[in-house]
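TEACHING EXERCISE
Course module: macromolecular assemblies
Task: Read the component lines below, then compare them to the predicted structure of the full complex.
Student: A.B.
Group: 4
Components provided:
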Amino acid sequence: MVRLGMVIDLKRCIGCHTCTVACKAEHHTPPGVFWAKVVRVESGKYPTVIRQAVPLLCMHCKEPECEKVCPTGATKKKADGTVTVDSKLCVGCRYCAVACPYGARYFTPEWKDYFTGEKKPSSQFAEYSKKKWLEESDRGVVSKCDFCEERVKQGKNPACVDACPTEARTFGDLDNPESEVSQLIKTRRGMQLHPEYGTDPCVYYLPAR
Amino acid sequence: MQQEDFKPGARAQMEWGFGGRRRWRDGALLMALFLGGIGAGQFVVSTWLIDSVTSALVGLVVVGVGKTVAHLVYLGQPTRFYRLFLRPKTSWISRGLIFMVVFVAFGAAYLAPDIGFAWVPWETGSTFSDALLVGAILSAFLVMVYDGFVLLTCKSITAWNTALMPPLFFTYAVAGGTAMTYLTLIAMGSEIPNQDTLTTIDSVLLVSMFALLVIYIVNMTTSNATARESLRKLTTTKVAIAFIGVAIVLGLLVPLSLTLYHEVASAGTVASVLLALSSILELSGDLSVRHSILRAGLHTPVFSEGL
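Instructor-supplied answer key:
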């Protein structure tokens, strides 16, 4: 059985936001929607304080809270372990967005232009972007990272993985003990975010120190 | 909005209640929770304690029309609303809406002979009618309490993930229902049957609500940092006006004093005015406490020390 997952090396991440931009370019997400984002975290105590860039995306949990609470069945867990939202079934109640502990879900009431903030596209590219977004999602529904479903089908990595200039992200099969992701988790003590919730995320972080 | 998304610490939930992503329209969800609670409470108080058909009908309409419309206004895709009923096995929203439909169906069937539908094959007081009433009251209880479970299931929001949520919402719903019953009867100009019992129940509910809020606050002070941040939000930011000012002082302490004073007020008109004022304050307190709890919903920081 395949269980797709990602490993993010916090030692390598420099917080350049290339993943954020690559995700936006790939999925044409409107303003305010960040399927991939980078958050700056300060940790430790003086004099050993570090400021760390931590990339965030949907954790594609093995036991997703969002799927449990979804009243419509729009959120589904697929055979390869990815958690997806069927925008044609979603009603926009946003219970999933509230229940997700990782803040990975975004509600988009309307598509808006990046530059004018209007519902009408201001350029040809914005027109194209709107069309692509509405093919992928819908108005008034919740959307989230789908591990670049289309790219993975073509045998490619998700856009954020390929775009990362420091190669901080590795994508692969968590169920295969020989895969690069499994090896990295084993050798570098990969950690999940909030394991106490019992969600068993498929995104692991390799510690910065 | 985007500031919340990129915050490394506790993040405010931006989806439910006034001030969310769609500012005012998101407040429709708060209204849905409020109307569901007070409507179901009014039906139970009106049928069980004072036997007032008009008041029970008002409660039923508040839930059947008010709550339904509020939910539809809130939804991003209201035309697909029927899909909300599909997952009662795991989702409290599905369960709650099913309870609501059952409540409206049983309640309407129970009231039908008294509101002009004389052709229905049962009469008020018959065994079948009593069974309908039991069904309506049981489902009304579930409508009152399910909101608490909806919030309780959000594991990362410490202020909601507490067993106090269902009893808190339930108590507020019954008290709101009592207040609505008073207001309906005063507006109709009718006598309030069983007034002493109702006043006693109302006072007990007000004291219970106060006790539950105190336990809720104490619980947050002894919980994790996110809960303490939620408490700070409840007590020192703009939300404090709604929580301390409206929910606790105007919605609990003032009505409690008015209810106690009302018992000793001799003149009928004065007593009615005091009761109406107390009921309006109680309802505003009910709405404010729900608003404050939604606004105090902070997600635990995604990152912990040691990354």
